Fold MATH domain-containing protein.
Amino acid sequence: MACYLFQQNGFSTSFSDSPPTHYALKIRSFSVLTKTSADEYESGEFEAGGYKWKLVLYPNGNKKKNVEDHISVYLEMVGADSLQTGYEVYVDFRFFLLDQNKGMFLVLQDANKKEKCFHEMMRYSGFDKLITLTSFTNPSNGYVIDDNCVIGAEVFVCKERRAGKGESISKIKDAVKCKHVWKVENFSNLGTDSCKSEPFTAGGRKWKIHLYPKGNDLGKGTHISLYLELDDAKKLAGSKVFAEFSLSIVDQMHARQESIIVNDGFSTWFSTSNPEWGRHKFISLATLNQAGNGFLVKDTCIVEATVTVHGILTAL
């Protein structure tokens, strides 16, 4: 839950109880970055909206843009130079700063909520003056405590466009999270074949949970493999569905929300060519079968899927 605060320096700020959906960069020794001879720091890569991204941080300000006494932070598209000529990706993104005193995140985004365009010649966008270095490092503000800080990002692809072709993305407002529970009985008798849940509806589409009890691909023989499958993918005819989802195996013995400890979260595009996403190595067979873990009780396991459809891309 976020509450609006104010606008400044071309961006708006708010506070959120929830951590960033797509990436969090935890810096254990921020002072080391400010004292190093390198001007910038690049995070690891992360995926959002079907593309790979990373954060680029200038702890002493981006000297290439004559920025001083501020922290500069940018979102960079990884592999943007390999995009087709004329291909454009329009993105809505926001940055997060953890206020460790309040236990909340300061959220910063473009004040006009204008989508940013990424392409082969424009691979990054962000804020030259995100926050003053003095304010960021002041312990009373909570952003840097014991030399530790957290900077995060959320990235949502709003539109894609190719030269000579077109695509239309419909963003779903007030998207609803749908939950489906699948009780898998007689688990030991499933053998090596895969099995699927009954279809369920989320975001106006039909979905199934796809389970390999003895593993698939890299997980074969050692893990169970678990995927979310778009059941009617053949009907898309060149269109795509963007969904955020999680898959869980429930700890049946403790019956607490926090006991659902095997959980993987994703956000990606589903299409005719890519109808399912998940993990080859979701949970090891040893962990699943270990007495006391609660994942397999009376030869039954319970699988949960939560799905939120955020948008639909239609080829023009």
Observations:
- The first helix runs from residue 30 to 35.
- The chain has a mean pLDDT of 86.
